[in-house]
Amino acid sequence: xxxxxxxxxxxxxxxxxxxxxxxxxxxxxxxxxxxxxxxxxxxxxxxxxxxxxxxxxxxxxxxxxxxxxxxxxxxxxxxxxxxxxxxxxxxxxxxxxxxxxxxxxxxxxxxxxxxxxxxxxxxxxxxxxxxxxxxxxxxxxxxxxxxxxxxxxxxxxxxxxxxxxxxxxxxxxxxxxxxxxxxxxxxxxxxxxxxxxxxxxxxxxxxxxxxxxxxxxxxxxxxxxxxxxxxxxxxxxxxxxxxxxxxxxxxxxxxxxxxxxxxxxxxxxxxxxxxxxxxxxxxxxxxxxxxxxxxxxxxxxxxxxxxxxxxxxxxxxxxxxxxxxxxxxxxxxxxxxxxxxxxxxxxxxxxxxxxxxxxxxxxxxxxxxxxxxxxxxxxxxxxxxxxxxxxxxxxxxxxxxxxxxxxxxxxxxxxxxxxxxxxxxxxxxxxxxxxxxxxxxxxxxxxxxxxxxxxxxxxxxxxxxxxxxxxxxxxxxxxxxxxxxxxxxxxxxxxxxxxxxxxxxxxxxxxxxxxxxxxxxxxxxxxxxxxxxxxxxxxxxxxxxxxxxxxxxxxxxxxxxxxxxxxxxxxxxxxxxxxxxxxxxxxxxxxxxxxxxxxxxxxxxxxxxxxxxxxxxxxxxxxxxxxxxxxxxxxxxxxxxxxxxxxxxxxxxxxxxxxxxxxxxxxxxxxxxxxxxxxxxxxxxxxxxxxxxxxxxxxxxxxxxxxxxxxxxxxxxxxxxxxxxxxxxxxx
Length: 732
Prior knowledge:
The chain contains 32 helices and eight strands. It has helices at 2-11, 29-40, 58-68, 88-93, 97-100, 110-127, 143-150, 184-194, 201-214, 218-230, 236-245, 266-274, 278-287, 297-308, 316-322, 339-344, 349-367, 371-375, 380-394, 409-423, 427-447, 452-471, 475-495, 500-519, 523-543, 548-567, 571-591, 596-615, 619-639, 644-663, 667-687, 692-714; strands at residues 46-51, 76-81, 133-138, 158-164, 175-178, 295-296, 326-328, 334-337. Helix 7 (143-150) links the parallel strand 3 (133-138) and strand 4. The two termini are 67 Å apart.
C-alpha cells in the first residue's frame, strides 16, 4: 500500500554522491514509466541507457527515477560520475557501497574485491525487504567502459542506469531511452517553479518567449529560472530583452543553485559539435540556415555529398542523428534541429552567404515548377522547408527607401508558396504565406508611400486573402478584402491608364468580386462587375494582340459571363460568349501545341459548350464537343500521369461520355464509360484523400453504375430529362 511504500522509501539509503529530490523537476512521467518497465522486465542484467543531447535532462530523469521508486531499492541508491572512466568494476568498487552496509572490502585485486562485493549484495538482498540496489552511472563517454560493463558479472539485485551523450550505435545490446526536449508548457512550469511568473500579461508573454527560445533544453530553461530566482529585481521582460542581445549565451551567474556543473549552454553542446567529422559539422551548419522544425533532409544529403564527394561508407547524417543534433519528425523528409544548437554553431560569413545562396536557388527552382508538380505525390514538405528558410531570411529584412533596392523576390516567394498551399488545400499555411506578402507591402509603403509595386502587391494580397475567406465560406470577410484590393487597383488604374499590369490588376479585382456576387445569387451585380472586367480585357487584347496573357484573360471573361447567362437560362447569349472564348482558345492552342495550359483551356471550352448543347437536347452536337474534350484530356493525362488536375479532367470527361451514351439509349456503351469513370474516380479518391470533391465524384460514379445496371436488368430505356440527375457532377 501507499504507506508501506513510504516506509520502505524512508529506509532506502542514499550513497554519498546521490542528491536529494529536485523539487523543480517537471514532466517526464512517460519517460519514468518506460525506465521502470525497462529495468523490471529485463531478462538478464537490469541495465538501461538514457541518452540525448547535452543539457536535455538525462541525469535529472535518472535521479528522479531513484526517488520515485525508492521503496523498491532496500539496498539503497548510488550515483557515480563516470566521465572519462574506462573500467566499470573499479568505478563500482570505488562508490562506497560496502561501507553503506557497514562492511569494508578486503585489500586485493579488483577481481577479488568485486567477488566479495557481489557476495555481500547477494547476502543482503535476501535479508532486506525489496533487496535491490539502484546505481546511476552518469555521463559515460568511453566505449571501453561499456565493454567492461557488459563483460562483468553483477548480481540480479543490481539495477543500473547509464546516462550518456553517446549515439545509439555505440550502445548496442543495451535498452536505450532517448530523452526529448521539454514541451512549452513544461518549460513554463519549470520557470514558474523557480520564480512565479505572475498574472501580468507582459511578463507572461516574455516568459513564453524565453521558453520558446530555449526550445525545451532543460538545462537552459533551469539556468534562466535560477537566474531570475536569484535576481528578484530583474523581470522576465528585462531578462528576455537582454537574452535577445546574445541568444547563444543567456545571462548567468557562477553560483546559481542548479545541479548541472555547466553554467552556460555552450559548455554542454560545443564538445559534441566539435567531435563531429568535417562533413557532419558542415551539414549541421547548413541545417542551421533552415527552419528548426523543417530541416529538409534530402537537400542536406545532396549538398553535403556534392561538397565533400563522399564515399559509400561515410554517413554525416547518421552522425547527426546518432548524437541527436538532428532528430526525426513525422515526415521522413524533414528533420528537427534544436534551436540552442543553432546558437552554439560557429559559422563564418562566407559559408553563410554561399549556403544561403544555395538554399535560395533550390527554393526558387522548385517554386518555378508547374502546379502539377505539387499535386503529384507528397511534396508539401518541400513547401514547408522553403517557407521556413525564407521566414529566417525575413527576420533580417527591413523596408527600403529606394524602389531599386527592394528585394521583391521575398514577395514572389511567399505569394507562390501561398498559391501552392492553396492548391493542396492547406489553407492555414496559405494564409500565413499571403499574410507575409501583405506585411511586406504594408511596411514598404511606410517608407515608400508612392511605390506602385508595393501598392500592387498590397492589392494582390487582399485578393489572395479574400480567396481563402471565400473558400472557407466567410463571404462578408471575403467581400471586404476584395473591395480593399479593388480600391487600390482603381486608384492606380486612374493614375496609370497606360500600364498593362495595373489595368490587368483592376480586371482581376472586378472578376474576383463578380465571382463572389455570382455565388451569392446577386447576378445583376455580378454581370456589371464581369462586364467592367471584360471591357478592360478587350482593350488590352486589342492593344497587345500578341500577348498570350491578354488573350487568355479575355477568354476567361467570356467564360465567366457565359456561365452567368447559362445559369439564368439565357442560352443564346451563353452560347455566343462561350464560342467567343472558344475561338480565342483555338488560336492559342494551335499557336502553342505544347502548352498544357492552352490545351486544357481549350478542353474546358469544349466541355462548357457540350454541357450547354446537351441541356438544350442537341445530343449530336454535345457528343461531338465532349469527344473533343475527351481527346485532349486523354493526351494530357497520358503526358502527365502524376498530375491530379489532368487525371481529374479525364475522370470528368468519362462521365460526360457516359451521360451522352445513356441519354442516347445505348446502355452498353454507357456501361463502358461508367466503368471507366468509376475506375478513374476510385483511383483519384484513393491517391488524393484530402480532396473532398474526388470522394463526391466516386460516390456519383457508384450511383451511375448502380442505376445503369438496374435499368439494364429491367430492359428499360432511359426517360427524357435524365441529364438533370447528373447536374451535381458538373461542378468541376
